[in-house]
Amino acid sequence: MTYPHTAIIGSGIIGAALAYALAKRDAPVTVVDEGIMENRATAGSFAWINAHRPEDAHYFALRLHSMRLWRELAAEDENLPVRLSGALNWEVPEDEIEELARALDDGGNTARLVSRARIRDMEPALAAPPEVAIDAPLEGVANPDTIAQALLAAAVRMGAQTLGAQVTGIATTNGRVTGLETDAGPVVAERVVIAAGRATPALLDAVDFTLPMKTPLGLLVRTKPVPRLSQRIMTSAELHVWQMTDGRLILGEDFGGSEVGDRRADTEARALDRARATFDGVPLEFETSTVAGRPVPEDDYPAVGWVPGTDGLMVATMHSGITLAPVMAAHLSTMLLDGAEVEALEPYQVARFDRD
Ligand SMILES: Cc1cc2nc3c(=O)[nH]c(=O)nc-3n(C[C@H](O)[C@H](O)[C@H](O)COP(=O)(O)OP(=O)(O)OC[C@H]3O[C@@H](n4cnc5c(N)ncnc54)[C@H](O)[C@@H]3O)c2cc1C
User: Fold this and answer.
1) Do 154 and 288 belong together in one domain?
2) Rounded to the nearest whole angstrom, what is the distance from the C-alpha of residue 41 to the centroid of ligand 1?
3) How far, in Å, from the CA of 195 to the mean position of ligand 1?
4) Tens-digit pLDDT profile for residues 331-344
């Protein structure tokens, strides 16, 4: 079977996972990335793989499907930097937590309420375990520093090509995509996928398509390595934390907007103070921090699929891209290679923003 050549703009988690899915089917694919790590949401992500929002059954099912695919990917390649060893969450108020646990469980994301005594057994390093928490054993994390590179490297081993270049335009003839213009010369392709995260709207502007997007900022603090404290991701109203394989803790904080202003140092200090209180007696030291904008389409849902007005042009951009990458890669590769529509992606089509 001969497939059309796809050029993907962006080698963050979405572009890399899609390249992997295409290469696995022996489809020709070239991934182009300008390689500016600070612009990459994936590298600044808290990288929690989860199923939330059970009140939205369709979206919840999509996330669950992706969690299952992450498990399959991790089984396919044991070196993939993914760890699905559970989450413990006590972020919501105590009077809502029981109902949430039930809704998560009823929706299929195995979840149960656990009491303080049980939490103490599960997470002995916690200084003051909460009264109750939701134990979600199927959730997990991907290493934000290496996951996209690992998937891309696997795609390259199966025949994918990569190009380090900035895409400056999308080439079209008579309304049909013919490839990319880059600062390293043209790339000829029959399909183009824009998986450029926050840069996606600017690239779409060139084909007169407006994708409204917000980019709320988030901060990650990495501590210096400490002995193993936990295998789980833990989230409370105060702190989001998990421990990397090398012993570093990742602490996540929001800025609640798109301006950091002079809040960075305070936010770092607060995250570290809270982590020190959480793991009392563990000498936690600041190592580095990142600030990154989340690529969030205006209505909070993914924006994927064919771009109206330009044949052969597809978009794949979203928040929760770490969670959703495998399911998006599976469905979008079906659309690209089999010419099929995918029912599961109907609500997330970028065409919903076509206001002409
Ligand atoms: C603080 C924070 C916390 C988050 N927490 C979670 C979480 O817990 N769970 C979860 O599932 N998701 C989370 N997310 C969201 C998730 O990280 C993103 O949805 C995902 O990383 C987006 O990946 P991407 O591949 O679309 O974009 P990116 O990772 O931004 O990659 C886009 C790539 O496109 C390239 N590019 C852009 N323009 C061009 C151009 N013109 N030419 C060439 N290359 C170009 C860039 O260099 C970049 O490498 C979080 C995000 C942030 C910032």
Assistant:
1) no
2) 3
3) 9
4) 999 999 999 999 99
